[in-house]
Design brief:
The structure holds 2 protein chains of 2 kinds. By secondary structure, chain A is of the alpha/beta class. Chain A is built from 32 helices and 20 strands. In chain A, a hairpin with a 5-residue loop joins strand 16 (576-581) and strand 17 (587-590). Chain A is globular. Chain B has a 5-stranded parallel β-sheet with strand order 8-7-6-9-12, with helices on one face. Chain B has a 3-stranded mixed β-sheet with strand order 2-1-5, covered by helices on one side. The longest helix of chain B has 19 residues, at 342-360. The chains are: A alpha/beta, B alpha/beta. The A-B interface holds A 38, 41-42, 51-57, 60-61, 466, 483, 485, 487-488, 490, 636-645, 647-649, 651-652, 655-656, 659, 672, 675, 679, 682-683, 685 and B 59-65, 67, 74-75, 77, 80-82, 98-99, 102-103, 106-107, 109-110, 444-445, 447-448, 470-471, 473, 476, 479-480, 485-497, 500, 502-503.
């Protein structure tokens, strides 16, 4: 007990005792104890300005905080959009069965594992994704649960620093670039890195190793690019550790005949001994000029993602050498703040967080309000399940985002900046923290930046798990140490924001585009895009598309171009049905409207919304009623609970959707659903409630026949488990694979005879159908 | 300043704050900057409904009942929006009404509580049974009878013959056995001298009542209590109607009949027995009396001869007012429809008195309104213990002599079995008033299972019933403002958000100085005083 008090004392001393320090205090306490012990919380109340009421209010609001002890390890199953359509629900149930959890329980009997649903982990192209403590597993299937637990338990926790070696001497033979965005890391690029290092070291190759940020081709991870000096760059995709040696030695040879011979001999010996087969690595080599890759990359215009895949996220010199901070220099040393605002206004850039408010006007409003203090907040609380653009920008281009903040702060007169980053993005937090330190070392943050009169201090604030805190008034409440209840606007944050002072809140992507505008001029940015939506937008393309990943395209690019030309069309030979744009606040655009250009106005007209940039592609096997239900359950879960229409209205809508997808719908339900949707839109306090009905309304508009079918108890795509039955048809050869796969013994072993599924026991997990080699399982 | 120029005299700064002109319902208004739309409307005499708003507290924008429209048709919460120059606000129109109704229906869909107890709702006369029980349990027989007589004119009689639909609805019945309501009511009638009580003076108006059965007697009693002089006509020698004819003296002794009917007559009701009202006499009565009530019992040819609209089963009347097509002529009791429920006839006698008074005052005859009642259905097993917190355990008591009724001790003990299902704030609940005003339908959005009732008591002071809470946060803001050490706070998020106490401490510890304030300001019955004096 005494040690506990000392720890809490230390935390209080470090974080402060004012109300605004509450969330960091709680995060630190949970970091120490793995949950929030009541004694610790009482201690905080007694030794700070913070009241017990405030503590409980905040601790019970944010998803991150746990008031009860949990298991040793946390299994987080991502149920974001992309994971959902790939079957994360089944994966979650499979883990629950593995841990033998009862209804309402989340921790197994041995208290070793606690299971949690999260949305979203931001690795959407690896869906379904499961994270156990710090280790992420991608492409998880229900049959891999045992394997994953075994793998996790066998992993040694290597907490070593990132090591990469550069050749000691001069004439560097070239560069090997390894993608280290979260998706790459999750798919094993760290192993690749180790393998590359080992190869380079063993052969004494004089090659420079580089870690680069996200290239965007998440569907091809892990990615390794070889750039020999004087030679052509070659990009290798889906690299496995055992291929690394061959890839590297193909391009780089040890200097000296003798050592080459030695290595070749040793290699041959190794091959003979270990029985390793020559895989023919040619098929892994990707030429950038090759059609799929150039199609993926070709149509894109990188502004926020400039120099993608080429620069090390944390190498400030490299960033500067490629023009980084030139815009800052120009703004701070050659322009007046009002001119900076004017430039942004002329570019017509609109907020990239979702609402699309003209950023220049926002900056002007903040600049205009007089106050002793002003603040700037970079909104990195990217909560849309299915969106990972901001994560990528923060992880891979932190300097660019910081630069945007410096310029914006200068323009409006703010001297204190906050990076509000979701706690679910630990890599982003680390990178930005380091980047800030680099900037401070280089007089780019702190006092008198670049010798000018302008000073700016930046700090990081980690979100604690609340989607609603992406809404700016709720975000500010959170920063002030309160629960994230949105407030009525007016007054807007531009007038009264953080601590009552004028505050500029901008999304990560918006800030990431600022330096380009200052550097290249407003006109250049203005020249890209459509009449009312200028510039480019970063999208996270995920779902049933062949080539998923992060893309940055000019506004006005059509949905068809994005999905078919860039994304390579629908995966697995299925047909395009609809695309969900804008996450849980957005809507579905059906296939027949695929020529809709992507810009704010056209999407609004269709009943969808640009949102933050999540694009989830759906094929003909997806049930639109289920999709609507999925999104509504997300917004329902994330509702802050303050206002009547959102708190109760969305729940009643969800009740109806649950009834529809389980065959319990009543006549009249559809018209009640529409009524609820209509009034929830009009009567909710903030954007969350106002837009929560969008997925329902847009699917009702374009796919009403699916709703009508569900009213009759039929799910046309066979997705809704409450409405489908699994059965064995005549193609059965009696191989017993299905009976073996069934986790609940609903199929008796009848070798060589047609098997039968007991529909009472069947839990619709789809394991039998996946196991059947003969297509003998029907789903009706 | 150039030399030689006189110093300019600067005008004194005006003390008046910046005034803003706007239009509310197309009328001009001018208010100080910083006034909310709701306050500005109030200055114009327009009351905008609101549940989460309090003048003393900063707005929270939760209930959304105060929605009004701006000139673009957008709905805005008037308690939280400050006036701006040139604003044009509409405070009421069909769309706004629909929005408010929907907000109420959403709130009611998760509001678990009974305004009136189910026994009271089940009783055709809507007698305030829980209050009667509380008074009996504390030994206040006379006051208990006064409560009974507000709604039931013949407690000793009905206490012997009524089939007690109230007991069928009783929540205690779900737990073990119903409270013996009927016998308790009988006890109040038997135990007391029923007379004299203060009776209002006559106002000069006179009503003729044809038929002195339970319906007519009741109508006579309640019209007399409104200052009208009733004259009862009956073809029998003594008043009582079916009470004398159809019920055995064993079940309903003569002395009980005499005593109870006597109290009604003693208030100044004129009785003309042995009088048959023919159709000619009926016309005469219409001329010489200010109003007429037909309470002749099961319809027969004589009543049909009065020429009133009817069908083979009975006369047809407006169900809210009991008025026939002829102004000033009303009809109640079995003449409408044959029934064995005497209590229903007695109830109608009470209700028609209200309509008659409206008529005699020259008002629009609309009948006595019934306020909205929140209802949630039967108790779940897990809730029994909660409800028993305000009661005693134990089986139902029966009188030792079956026909003898309760002794005092037995009555007290049985009355204590009542679980007080009525809401303490039934007369002081904004949610109920607005639900009534906007005709909200509580059943519209009952799509998920209801929450289970829990009750949290202070030792003395207030009680908290979370399932009645509408999350308006008034109590949270109050305990914060007045710096309670613990206070009340929001716990959780979303649909299951609730008001709770930090660190699971008791209600006694949580709310000390502000207990009275939070109970007073709570817009529902979630926070109320433990002991509500009548």
């Amino acid at each position: 007990m005494e040690t506990d008090k000392t720890i809490v004392d230390k935390i209080l001393a470090e974080k402060g005792r004012e109300k605004k320090a509450l969330i960091p205090i709680l995060q630190a306490i949970q970091g120490e104890f793995n949950y929030l012990p009541e004694e610790a919380l009482r201690y905080v109340a007694e030794h700070s300005e913070i009241t017990p009421a405030d503590i409980l209010s905040v601790a019970s609001f944010y998803s991150q905080f746990r008031l009860h002890p949990v298991g040793e390890h946390t299994v987080k199953v991502c149920v974001g959009t992309a994971c959902h359509v790939k079957g994360s629900g089944q994966v979650y149930e499979a883990f629950r069965r593995k841990f033998k959890l009862e209804e309402g329980e989340n921790t197994d009997a041995s208290r070793k594992y606690t299971i949690e649903k999260v949305s979203c982990l931001g690795c959407c192209t690896l869906a379904p994704v499961v994270q156990i403590d710090q280790i992420t597993y991608g492409h998880v299937t229900t049959s891999q649960v045992d394997e994953i637990i075994a793998d996790f338990e066998s992993q040694s926790q290597s907490a070593g620093k990132k090591q990469y070696r550069t050749a000691a001497g001069q004439d560097i033979q070239g560069e090997i670039r390894i993608g280290l965005g979260s998706c790459c890391v999750a798919s094993g690029s760290d192993e690749i890195r180790k393998a590359v290092e080992a190869t380079v070291n063993n052969r004494g190759l004089r090659v420079k190793l580089k870690h680069v940020g996200c290239v965007g081709m998440c569907h091809q991870v892990p990615l390794v690019e070889i750039v020999p000096t004087g030679g052509e760059a070659v990009l290798y995709s889906k690299v496995k550790p055992e291929d690394v040696k061959d890839i590297v030695t193909r391009h780089f040879h040890s200097s000296g005949l003798l050592s080459r011979l030695k290595h070749n001999l040793l290699d041959t010996a190794e091959y003979i001994q270990t029985d390793a087969k020559w895989q023919g690595i040619e098929r892994y080599a990707l030429n950038v000029r090759e059609k799929p890759v150039s199609s993926f990359l070709g149509k894109q215009i990188p502004i926020a993602t400039e120099y993608r895949g080429m620069i090390n996220p944390l190498d400030i010199e490299e960033y500067i050498s490629r023009g980084g901070f030139n815009a800052t220099r120009k703004a701070l040393l050659e322009m007046k703040p009002a001119d900076v605002v004017k430039t942004i206004k002329e570019s017509h850039i609109r907020g990239r967080g979702g609402a699309g408010f003209p950023s220049g006007i926002k900056w002007e409003l903040v600049a205009r309000h007089e106050s002793s203090e002003k603040f700037i907040i970079c909104n990195g609380d990217e909560g849309d399940p299915g969106a990972f653009m901001d994560r990528m920008l923060l992880e891979s281009y932190p300097f660019r985002v910081i630069e945007g903040m410096i310029i914006a702060a200068y323009a409006v007169g703010a001297h204190q900046g906050f990076f509000y980053i979701r706690a679910e993005y630990p890599l982003a937090v680390r990178r930005v923290r380091e980047a800030i330190a680099r900037c401070e070392e280089n007089n780019l943050l702190g006092d008198r930046i670049l010798g000018s009169d302008f000073s700016l201090k930046a700090e990081i604030y980690e979100g604690a798990g609340a989607f609603v805190c992406g809404e700016e008034s709720a975000l500010i409440e959170s920063l002030e140490g309160r629960r994230g209840f949105p407030k009525i606007r007016p007054p807007f944050p531009a007038e009264r924001g953080y601590m009552g002072h004028p505050t500029l809140v901008n999304n990560v992507e918006t800030l990431a585009q600022v330096s380009y505008i200052l550097r290249e001029g407003a006109g250049k940015f203005y020249s890209i895009g459509t009449e009312h939506s200028k510039g480019t937008k970063v999208f996270a393309l995920a779902g049933k598309v062949a080539r998923g990943g992060l893309i940055e395209v000019p506004m006005g690019t059509t949905i068809r171009q994005v999905i078919f030309e860039i994304g390579g069309g629908i995966a697995n030979g299925r047909s395009f049905k609809a695309v969900q744009i804008g996450g849980p606040s957005g809507g579905c655009i059906p296939a027949e409207k695929a020529d809709t250009p992507i810009d704010y106005e056209s999407l609004n007209k269709m009943g969808a919304m640009m949102g933050s940039g999540g694009l989830v592609v759906l094929d003909d096997s997806d049930c639109m009623v289920d999709i609507a239900r999925f999104f509504l359950s997300f917004t329902q879960h994330e509702s802050c609970g303050k206002c009547t229409f959102c708190r109760i209205g969305t729940r009643r809508m969800l009740d109806i959707l649950n009834n529809l997808t389980s065959g319990k719908a009543q006549p009249g339900d559809l018209s009640e659903l529409e009524k609820l949707a209509h009034w929830t839109q009009r009567g909710s306090l903030c954007g969350l409630g106002k837009t929560a009905p969008n997925p329902v309304l847009s699917t009702l508009k374009y796919f009403r026949e699916e709703y009508e079918a569900h009213l009759k108890g039929i799910c046309p795509t066979g997705k809704c488990t409450g409405l489908i039955t699994y059965s064995v048809n005549e193609k059965c050869i009696g191989c017993t694979l299905c009976a073996q796969a069934c986790p609940v013994n609903a199929i008796l072993f009848t070798p060589l005879e047609k098997h039968v599924i007991d529909t009472e026991l069947c839990i619709k997990c789809d394991a039998c159908r996946s196991a059947c080699p003969e297509n003998a399982i029907d789903v009706k | 300043m150039p030399a030689g120029q006189p110093a300019r005299k600067m005008p004194l700064m005006s003390n008046k704050e910046f005034m803003i002109k706007l239009k509310i319902n197309n009328r001009e208004a001018e208010v100080e900057e910083g006034t909310s739309v709701m306050q500005a409307a109030r200055r114009q005499g327009i009351h905008i409904p609101g549940l989460c708003h309090d003048d003393e507290l900063l707005h929270i924008t939760s209930c959304m009942l105060c929605l009004v429209k701006d000139c673009t048709g957008k709905l805005i919460p008037s308690c939280s929006v400050k006036v701006t120059p040139g604003m044009m606000i509409i405070t009421d129109d069909p769309e706004i009404e629909e929005a408010r109704r929907m907000a109420l229906e959403l709130l009611l869909s998760e509001h678990v509580g009974d305004c009136e107890a189910p026994c009271q709702v089940g009783c055709p006369a809507h007698m305030n049974i829980p209050l009667m029980n509380r008074l009996i349990a504390s030994g206040k027989w006379e006051e208990a009878l006064k409560v009974v007589k507000r709604d039931i004119a013949l407690p000793s009689i009905l206490g012997r013959i009524c089939p007690a639909p109230c007991e069928g609805a009783c929540h205690r019945k779900t737990v073990d056995e119903a409270v013996s309501i009927c016998l308790l009511k009988r006890f109040t009638g038997d135990e007391n001298d029923l007379y004299p009580w203060t009776i209002p003076p006559l106002n000069g108006k006179r009503v003729a009542i044809i038929g002195a059965g339970p319906a007519g007697l009741s109508a006579a009693y309640y019209t007399r209590l409104r200052g009208i002089e009733p004259t009862l006509f009956d073809r029998q020698e003594k008043p009582g109607g079916e009470l004398r004819v159809s019920i055995s003296r064993e079940n309903l002794p003569e002395d009980v009949l005499e005593r109870e009917i006597g109290t009604i007559l003693n208030t100044g009701v004129i009785f003309r027995g042995n009088t048959t009202v023919t159709d000619a006499f009926f016309e005469e009565l219409k001329q010489s009396y200010d109003a007429l009530i037909v309470a002749t019992g099961n319809i027969d040819d004589l009543t049909k001869s009065y020429g009133l609209q009817g069908n083979p089963k009975g006369l047809e009347v407006n169900r809210d007012t009991f008025g026939t097509a002829e102004p000033g002529v009303f009809a109640i009791g079995n003449v409408l429809r044959p029934s064995r429920l005497a209590v229903r006839s007695v109830a109608q006698g009470k209700e028609v008195a209200f309509s008659v008074e409206q008529y005699l005052n020259g008002e629009l005859v609309s009948g006595e309104p019934r306020l909205f009642n929140s209802r949630f259905g039967r108790l779940h097993q897990t809730e029994f213990a909660e409800y028993l917190k305000e009661s005693i355990r134990g089986k139902r008591i029966w009188p030792s002599v079956p026909a003898g009724g309760f002794s005092r001790e037995d009555a007290v003990r049985e009355a204590q079995r009542c679980m007080h299902c009525d809401c303490r704030a039934a007369d002081d609940c904004k949610l109920r008033l607005y639900a009534d005003r906007y005709k909200a339908d509580q059943k519209r959005f009952q799509s998920s299972p209801r929450r289970n009732v829990t009750k949290h008591f202070q030792t003395e002071g207030i009680v908290y019933e979370p399932q009645k809470c509408i999350k308006c946060g008034i109590c949270v803001r109050l305990t914060e403002k007045y710096r309670e050490k613990l206070g009340l706070t929001y716990i959780g998020r979303g649909f299951d958000i609730a008001i709770g106490i930090p660190f699971h401490e008791s209600l006694d510890a949580a709310v000390k100085e502000t207990a009275i304030l939070v109970a007073e300001k709570c817009p529902t019955g979630a926070l109320s005083f433990r002991h509500v004096s009548e």
